[in-house]
Model the fold of this input.
Amino acid sequence: MLVLGIESTCDETACAIVEDGKNILSNVVSSQIDLHSEYGGVVPELACRRHVDVLIPIIQEALQIAKKTLHDIDLFAVAHGPGLVGALLIGLNATKSLSLALDKPFIGINHIEAHLYAALMSQSTPTQFPCLGAVLSGGHTTLLLMHKVGHYELIGQTIDDAIGEAFDKVAKILGLPYPGGPYIEELARIGNPSRYPFKPGRVKESPFSFSFSGLKTAVLYAVKGQHPHSDPLPPITHAIQADIAASFQHAAFTDIEKKILAAAEKYSCKTIVFGGGVTNNQALRARLTEKCPHLSLLWPLAGLSLDNAAMIAGLGYHRFLQQGKGDTLELEAVTRFDF
Ligand code: KG4
Ligand code: ZN
Done:
């Protein structure tokens, strides 16, 4: 079964063609980093205009790489949430149009769920459920108990900034480019992680929830140092910049690691499934690999951590088989999903 997937939830426009939920024939992503970098974050109106400009060429490119035509496609899959409503509507309406024009079914996919499926689709052996799912991305910090594909229970999530968003905001404070995650990771390698005693927030009576906004503010005050009213921010040396990056990353990952390990134990999960752009971070992978010799850790392969459409097409295949039919034209864009 050939599935064409479309992703346009935020600032990546992507199209992929996947066979039988696993075999990726093409995976094309057009990033908008150039468009948003001068603002240090995503500007929704600009994101939507760019999706409109590039979506059709991206679909054509994905078909060309896969050596297929639209008539070969059996099912269309689209991320219909969560995300920016205008951005979601562009991918969703394009998918509905393709489905109508070609008289083929389409299915709406939850982007968060697809981030976890990205790690499952690279596995050669069947997954042992229940698993703990950890989505660590620019928009989400979510822990889910995964009973099987399509059946999840929310264990915890961030009550303010997502982990990737915290990396991006801290990078902005340190004067680094957007998106800041990879730059913080690089700087952190040469910094001293114990120079600044940063601490992420605790969420009362919710041991698996996250709070990163206080951590970001602590970084801001560390940069301001002796000049709390300085505007613009006072200059800092490269060594201090590296120590702040290392201390921030260490604090954030210690918190995530502690909660993931405690949740895996509480819910008797032997496998942890990771998804989202922050799982690109090699320091995170190394520390979890060291701490969890007793657990099986499933990471997304290269090209499947950040937003992409291969995970949408892959999951679309399973959801279509489970549902036994596609969605109707009434399907709406959803800015928030409840698990
Ligand atoms: O999964 P993704 O494309 O976006 C959402 O679905 O939200 O992830 C993008 C996020 C950005 O915040 C970016 O800074 C972060 O992933 N990121 C990283 C790394 N690479 C990307 N964060 C930490 N370390 C990295 N190496
Ligand atoms: Zn994402």
User: Anything to note?
Assistant: The beta strands are 2-7, 12-19, 23-31, 75-81, 106-110, 131-136, 141-148, 151-157, 271-275, 296-298. The pocket of KG4 (ligand 1) is lined by residues 10, 137-139, 164-165, 167-168, 179-182, 185, 276-278, 280-281, 306-307 (CB under 6 Å). The first strand starts at residue 2 and ends at 7. The chain is about 40% helix and 20% strand.
